[in-house]
Structure formats: structure tokens, C-alpha cells
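input
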Amino acid sequence: MLTSYASPLERVWYYALRVICGLVLVFLMLPLLVIAPLSFNSDSFLLYPMSGFSLRWYEDFLFSPEWRLALMNSCIVSPCATLLAMLLGTPAAIGLTRLDFPGKALLTAILISPMVVPVVIVGVATYLVFAPIGLTGSYVGLILVHAALGVPFVVTTVAATLQGFDFNLVRAAASLGANPLTTFRCVTLPLVAPGVISGGLFAFATSFDEVVVTLFLAGPEQTTLPRQMFAGIRENISPTIAAVATILTVLSTLMLITLEYLRRRGERLRGETRLAAN
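output
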């Protein structure tokens, strides 16, 4: 916050930093602002000036057999992969936060490695492993890989939430006779829920937008929305792709708003927990 005691140089830097951040934001948002109006173009080409206003490309997305199949596959794979990532990542984050044991750093690195390893390497490796056991061209193989890509996000967000967690609450519940499952369900989970949901949203976004691994593993019947968009760009750039991109942008914006709400809620819960402990 700029105060009346700031020097001239500090005032210049204060405003210059905000101008730079604004220009970077405009640079990042400009492609989205350009492509969104083209999704309402009545012409069959992505070009300006627009010849007229039409919803035909949204109609094509909703009623075209190829796009409907891709949307259905994404709606099957992404929620299942997100749920599996949350079920695996949450206990892993709790265990890594509470316990100290030999090899903890190595195990943590392995769990978050899908976040840093290039996706092409993940695609090739999973194809070589899944092909001999018949998991290529199946929903199961695709869900397992997408879940593996989402687990690091769940682990990191839940672990970050647990940094302010008072484990004395868990000990108190155990001393009152609650078993570990009841303690987790009634004490731990409500307090770490913002981190779990935030990690789940990141995992869902990762799965829903993933295309490289899908190119390696998915068959014709498992074509997801990003893969259909990739095929459409490679073969014929249709304004339907602009319509799909606009819808995905709106969904991503809603996810970011939800994540910000969960972040603030998590901070409020941690503050209330510290006050109760004191």
C-alpha cells in the first residue's frame, strides 16, 4: 500500500509495477478476447470483420455426433480421474505431513513427478506399459493415467492446507473414543476440505484439457474434447473450435473463482481453529 512517506522513486515503482502487470494481463487475455467473438460469426471461416451474428457453431457443438461423443467421453474420464486422484492424494498428503520416515523426500518427489515430467514422456511410458496388458484404447487406462496426472495437485494443495492444521484436535478426538475413520470424517476432512476440493478442481482441469497422453492411449471410441479440437485444427479450422474454446474459457474462469473462494474459506477456518486452540 502506498503511503504518504514513500519516496518519489517508490511512487514511480508502485505505479510502474501495476502498469506492467496490467500489460501482461492484457497480453495473456488478448487471444481469448479475439477468439470469443469469432464463435458467434455466421461465416464459416475465422476472420475479421465478422459477416454476421449466429449461434450455429454452438448448435454444431451440441448436436454434432463427433463433438457429442467427445464431450461425453470427457464427462466420463475427467470426473472419474478426479475422484480417483482425490481418493489417492488426500491420504498421501496427510501421511506425508504427519509422519517422518526414511525416504520421505524420495516418496514426495515420486508423487509430484507427474507434475514436472514432460507429458510426452508420460504418454510414451504409459503406452509401453499399458499396451501389453490391453489397457490402451480403454476408459480404464485413460482414467488411470489422468488420475496419476492429477494426484500431484491434490497432494500439494492438501499438504499446504495441513500446514496450519492443529493435530491436537485429532488426538483429542481419539482420546474421546473416536476410531481413526470417524476422526478423519468428522475432524480432519471438514478442515482440509478446501484443499481437497481445490486439488480436485486442478486435477479436473488437468484431465479435461489433457491431449498428449490421450493421443497415445485413446482409441476412436475414447476421443475426448481436447483431442477432437486437436483433430479439427489439424484437418480443418472450424468456428466450432472457437465455440468450444469459449465454453472452456468460461468454465476455467468459474473454476478460478471457486478456487479463490475456497482459499479464503480455508484461511478463515485455519484462523478459527487457532483461536479455538488458544
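quick obs: The chain has a mean pLDDT of 82.
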